[in-house]
Amino acid sequence: MRRISRLHVSTVLLLVLAAGQATAAGLLNVSYDVARGLYQDLNRAFVEEHARSSGETVKVDQSHGGSSKQARAVIDGLGADVVTMNSPLDIDVIADAGLLPKNWAAAFPERSSPSWSTIVFVVRKGNPRRIADWPDLTRADVKAVLPNPKTSGNGRYSYLAAWHYARSQPGATDQTAIAFEQAFFRNVPVLDIGGRDATTTFAHRGIGDVLLTFESEAKVIGKTFGADRFEIVYPSISVRADNPVAVVEKNAARNGTTALAEAYLKFHYGKTAQTIFAGHGLRTVDPEVAAAHAAAFPPIRTFTVEEAFGGWPAAQATHFASGGHFDRIIAEVRK
Amino acid sequence: MSAAPRRVRPALGEPAPVRVLLIALTIAFLAAFLVLPLVLMFSQALAGGVDAYFAAITDRDTLAAIRLTLVAAAIAVPLNALFGVAAAWAIAKFDFRGKNLLITLIDLPFSVSPVIAGLVFILLFGAHGWFGAWLGAHDVRIVFALPGIVLATIFVTFPFVARELIPLMQAQGSSEEEAALTLGAGGWKLFWHVTLPNVRWGLLYGILLCNARAMGEFGAVSVVSGHIRGLTNTMPLHVEVLYNDYQFAAAFAVASLLALLALVTLGLKSLLEWRHGDELAALRGR
Questions:
Q1: Helical ranges in chain A per DSSP H
Q2: What is the pTM assigned to this prediction?
Q3: What is the ipTM of this complex?
């Protein structure tokens, strides 16, 4: 035992000394918070494929953090060659700062989003409250958990999906949608800051009957906290949440990595990467890969923010800006 | 008369029940707020077994984080020791205008939130900061790279040595230096043979505190780090990353390493006090 630990300790020390920065040609991918495992797999595959096709060994460094914080860091000078985010808004912000063109979404197929997810309901095993669709979230006997729409992507998408559901009912007006959201948010005991906090509140602390989150996160919850404790419920309609990618053209041009960055993002659309996305619970845009994983991803009717709200800037201004619909709904609920 | 003193309670001391209660309270408090979390952390870290523990801390990114933390401390602590001695020397041995202002400025990092400290460096050296354009044109990276991390660490830890030395040097006064001067000692000789030996334990103490904080700093470093795995994540940042990835055992393993570093520092400090307690007490009490 003693010898083992001495061996371990000296190994650690040696490795610490050896872990110097090897400088290979490479990319810096600035990404969102929970994509670490995904990009470990995807980068490994890319490096292998790139070595095969070009004989050149490259390296992809990763930076992860809250999506908006990451966008801010890129604007402040974090030298990202590519950004891979979970909300188009965060790439728009970087475009506004002049680091990449405003029409970045047209650079790659599917609005530059090689994968996507959607908001689903996670309920406790056996679905004791019989939650099936959006109206169930407004029932007085249901407690729902979701992160704050002001600070998190999941929260924003969940809010917009509920709004769109209510607004597309026959005879609906903005007033009925507001009333629907009020009834829904009256059932929300805590608004956590981020998606992972909300997950912890629901799965670890056992608060609430239903958690609203991305399908990809819902699958992680099953893996982490026990698949036999939770079920995923697919509502009748939900929102399509794109995971967009872009080359940060100014940085890439300075680093001389433009071609490599483009090859890296193109790789996201290939069979290998698409299969990796599916393995990490994300829906894919390649029809063949999607068909191969159809069992894990039940069909669901989705709408995009562009279709229902005229794009993110408009949705942001109407709903989430100071004094917007969301602020007024919360003020009414807290009265 | 002979039995009386036994019943009279000692002049210095509380009755036994009060003493027991106070001691029990202290121990309970320490157990709840210090020992329990520590035990919990180590048990979580070792939950997957010793091999899993070592696998977690020999992970490439973890090793890079350890290395970065050590490098940042190795640069920041000596610089702060130098600065601290210089500042304490100037403040304690000389009179000049603005001295009180200087003392207040030295304390600034204690009163400013570390996050704000980090943001200041972004505003100075970030792409849109004061020096951003010049740095960009000359391809010099400060923030989101090692220099930024070192700068942030220096900023939050610079009062430790100075704060430890100023009262000590002030209390010692300058009579010994004056004596040395009259005996013909020059400036350097005076410093090496009189001033420095007089404050050596205080200095060491300050350096230990400074080092502990430098390795543990989170807020300021988080702002300027850029969180590039294997490149700009320090140990505290790496713990957060692992925790958010649901890698609880690995997160606690790295946290336990950090705690071990802190415990070593504490141990060194206690050793110092034990070996040189009288000297330290004499220096500090004067």
A1: 2-18, 36-54, 67-75, 88-96, 109-112, 153-167, 174-186, 195-199, 215-225, 249-255, 258-267, 271-279, 287-292, 305-309, 312-315, 325-333
A2: 0.79
A3: 0.74
